[in-house]
Design a protein that fits this description.
With 94 residues, this protein is mainly beta. The protein has one helix at residues 80-92; strands spanning 6-9, 14-17, 20-23, 32-42, 46-52, 57-63, 66-76. The strands form three sheets. The protein has a three-stranded antiparallel beta sheet with strand order 1-4-7, with no helix packed on it. The two termini are 41 Å apart.
Length: 94
């Protein structure tokens, strides 16, 4: 992902704002997070060592996982209509 590009994440699981908590089941409909990319990088190296006794088999390899660094710009909460409708559906059992 290019550095400085904007990303929109729409699968939000939980929003907490002081005493107000919104929990998704499993995600919150209508909520999204707007973030900016700060480039890509590599994680710490993990060594993978395979070994079989008595047969002189040894294999050593390494792995570095790629990741994208994001900075959260803002969190957009769902409208009250969407939350109210979802509560009514859950209460009715449908």
């Amino acid at each position: 992902m290019a550095e400085g590009s904007t990303v929109e994440l729409d699968r939000v699981l939980l929003i907490v704002d002081n005493d107000k908590v919104i929990v998704g089941t499993p995600s919150i409909d209508g909520a999204k997070v707007i973030a900016t990319s700060h480039g890509e990088g590599k994680g710490k190296k993990i060594i993978v060592f395979k070994y079989k006794p008595k047969v002189r088999y040894r294999k050593k390899t390494g792995h570095r996982q790629l990741y994208t660094r994001l900075a959260i710009d803002r969190i957009v909460e769902p409208s009250k209509k969407v939350r109210r409708r979802k509560k009514e559906v859950i209460a009715s059992g449908a």
